[in-house]
Amino acid sequence: xxKINTEHFxxxxxxxxxxxxxxxxxxxxxxxNNPEDWEPMSGEKxxxxxxxxxxxxxxxxxxxxxxxxxxxxxxLKEINAALGKIENDNYGVCEISGHQIxxxxxxxxxAARTCKAHINE
Length: 121
Ligand SMILES: [Zn+2]
Prior knowledge:
Order of helices and strands: HEEHH
Radius of gyration: 19 Å
Structural class: mainly alpha
Number of strands: 2
Helix content: 40-55%
Strand order of the largest sheet: 1-2
Bound molecules: zinc ion
């Protein structure tokens, strides 16, 4: 099997990371005490609204922000983990079998932790 081009995947991961961070920045702010923790912002622009429908909307918006933030946070952690593996020279190794992960799988998901055989583990 040919050797994995880590430079190529590093570029992809960094690009993906920048995208995730700018997405996170629109709906959350980073916890000053923990740069890996993003705190969702409430949908409310000011607290003066008296319309109960408005505040129901912003609660809903806050909840969907919260879900999205945790989703993006997980993706960001995976990307950071993959970047860490590149630094440690063990990128592209299946965490289950220890085999090299298929290049096409890494193309589709550069942060993949497992080979195709262990995709659901
Ligand atoms: Zn495997």
